[in-house]
Design brief:
The complex is a heterodimer of chains A (251) and B (303). Chain A has 251 residues and is an all-alpha fold. Chain A has helices at residues 2-16, 19-41, 53-84, 88-91, 97-123, 134-158, 162-178, 191-197, 201-214, 221-245. Chain A has ten helices and no strands. Chain B is 34% helix and 29% strand. Chain B is built from ten helices and 14 strands. In chain B, 40% of the residues are buried. The chains are: A mainly alpha (251), B alpha/beta (303).
Chain lengths: 251, 303
């Protein structure tokens, strides 16, 4: 247990020591999105009857911040210590692959939740958030952070160079989050793209999370929970399998 | 004395390259053991297999009887490895680095031992300095300290003195010798053969993934090296014919003779006296590991 706790503590310290860049910066980015999109669209778009566009946007931006930062934390920590060689300090001790997985994923989720909380706090003044079903908010934030943390572990293990990781981020994570209904309801899409969106697990993370705020959503939160829970199991299984094999870590 | 490290028929390939081609050796508890060989001989691969950083394709390795694969937790707790690469985590101070490393090994309050390591490695005044701000030699010391946080009974040092100044090197060896005196088994790889000769009681030489020599340092020296005698003869005189079989050539006007043992000096002097040749200068050097190493490697290449 001490091994896991120490590795978790190290991972938390790692981003906290540069929190200006790892926590404050993404909060500011989300704030900029909100300022621009709400300024341009607030008068023109109404997604749900009772909800202003600005209010609609906030949970999406929050979840996007949770997801991107959880992914970034695990993946950048791993690739950095792989490239510099300092990962050896974690590989030499008697830390099991399960402890390794839990430490990286928990730290990633915590950074995601921290940034998400920051986004909620700085945007609260623009449209006071409702908390229609707070349990859904917590469940989807935790699961979303954990999924992206686990995916970050996979990407960090797989990538040998920073640009490979950037590719993973730009061609997989970013499209999945951008095309998931952060800025719109998928009901406003043409039928084809609506169907495509239903294959994107990030859509369910955001839709379920948003349900926690407004009590309304594009699909049932139970369906979202099932999809997101399933995605968590799949990504975790993949990540654990790679760690157990020592893929690219123990030759 | 029990067996500290057991390596049995270990093979490791990286693609077409065979890094280890069936290595077997045993290191007893309390030994100061040298692992020598040219670059690419497989030393670091062998250490990686022992430390669980690489997985052998065949064979078994154990630390104090604990299998490094089946019982990896116990094996890793018994082993401290100083890696060859100068790696560090730039986010932390020296003390944080050591406290974190202790935690990885399940040790929570380790300050007393950490202070002792810091003092012995002359790092005490750098304890709160960030790793980034340390010189190369200092970083190397921290690497040694990190390998010792859990007081491992078996310590592996993979070229610990590469790029390290003389003062630190001496301080480091003093500390490692003390640990060895206290019962820690030490395994050392180095390219500084005089260090290996001075420190190691037994040596394995690796070449292309095979053990090509494995014996006590003393026996290796006796078998593969000899006393060298350098003679400058008055008036540039030639060597008497009776000494021709000992001659290994001339260097800077001095004859180089190779003696099977130091008593042969008597024979040389007698022959010169008999021939009426005076000596301007004479130097006798003891056998050295560098010569032994070169000869073992030549033999290995079939030369």
């Amino acid at each position: 247990m001490t091994g896991f706790r120490t590795l978790l503590w190290k991972e938390l310290l790692r981003f906290w020591k540069v929190s200006f860049q790892t926590v404050a910066a993404p909060v500011v980015t989300a704030l900029l999105y909100l300022l621009i999109f709400s300024h341009v669209l607030d008068e023109h778009v109404q997604v749900y009857e009772s909800v202003r566009y600005t209010a609609f946007l906030i949970p999406g931006l929050t979840m996007m911040a949770v997801l991107q930062n959880a992914f970034a934390n695990a993946s950048s920590s791993l690739i950095q210590s792989k490239v510099t060689g300092s990962l050896v300090f974690v590989l030499l001790p008697p830390i099991s692959y399960l402890e390794f997985f839990l430490a990286y994923v928990t730290a990633a989720a915590i950074r995601g939740l921290l940034v998400g909380t920051g986004v909620l706090l700085v945007t609260a003044g623009f449209a006071p958030p409702g908390f229609a079903a707070p349990l859904w908010i917590v469940v989807f934030a935790l699961l979303g952070g954990a999924i992206m943390g686990a995916l970050g572990v996979v990407a960090g293990i797989w990538a040998d160079k920073f640009d490979q990781l950037a590719g993973f981020q730009n061609f997989l994570i970013l499209p999945l989050t951008m095309l998931s209904g952060v800025f719109y309801s998928i009901h406003s899409l043409p039928p084809f793209w609506q169907r495509v969106s239903h294959f994107n697990p990030v859509f369910y993370m955001i839709d379920g999370f948003r349900h926690g705020f407004f009590g309304v959503s594009d699909v049932s939160p139970l369906l979202s929970l099932a999809v997101v829970g399933g995605a968590f199991l799949v990504v975790s299984a993949l990540s654990l399998a790679l760690l157990k094999r020592g893929y690219k870590l123990r030759n | 004395m029990g067996v500290a490290v057991s390596v049995q028929q270990v093979e490791k390939r990286f693609g077409a390259l065979t890094a280890l081609a069936g290595v077997s050796l045993e290191i007893a508890e309390g030994e100061f053991f040298g692992l020598l060989g040219p670059n690419g001989a497989g030393k670091t691969t062998l250490i990686s297999c022992l430390a669980g950083l690489a997985r052998p394709d065949a064979g078994r390795l154990a630390v104090l009887g604990r299998d490094v694969a089946a019982d990896y937790r116990a094996a890793r707790r018994l082993l401290g490895v100083v890696p060859q690469e100068l790696v560090f985590d730039p986010f932390f101070t020296v003390r944080e680095t050591l406290a974190i490393q202790s935690g990885y090994f399940g040790i929570r309050d380790n300050d007393t031992w950490i202070d002792e390591i810091l003092a012995n490695l002359d790092l005490a005044d750098k304890a709160d300095t960030n790793m980034r701000q340390l010189s190369g030699g200092m970083k190397r010391r921290v690497l040694v300290a990190q390998a010792l946080v859990h007081r491992p009974p078996v310590i592996v040092l993979d070229e610990p003195t590469a790029g390290v100044d003389v003062e630190l090197r001496q301080g480091l060896w003093q500390f490692i010798r003390r640990l060895n005196g206290e019962g820690h088994t030490i395994i050392l790889t180095t390219h500084y053969l005089e260090e290996a000769e001075a420190l190691c009681g037994r040596i394995a030489m690796l070449q292309q993934g095979r053990v090509v020599a494995l014996d006590s340092t003393e026996n290796l020296l006796r078998e593969f090296s000899c006393h060298a005698l350098s003679l400058r003869l008055a008036g540039g005189a030639a060597l008497p014919a009776s000494l021709a079989n000992l001659a290994a050539g001339q260097e800077g006007g001095a004859w180089q003779l190779r003696l099977p043992d130091f008593t042969a000096v008597e024979r040389v002097l007698a022959a010169l006296r008999e021939a009426g040749i005076a000596i301007d200068d004479m130097r006798l050097s003891p056998p050295d590991l560098e010569e032994a190493f070169v000869r073992v490697m030549q033999r290995g290449r079939g030369a």
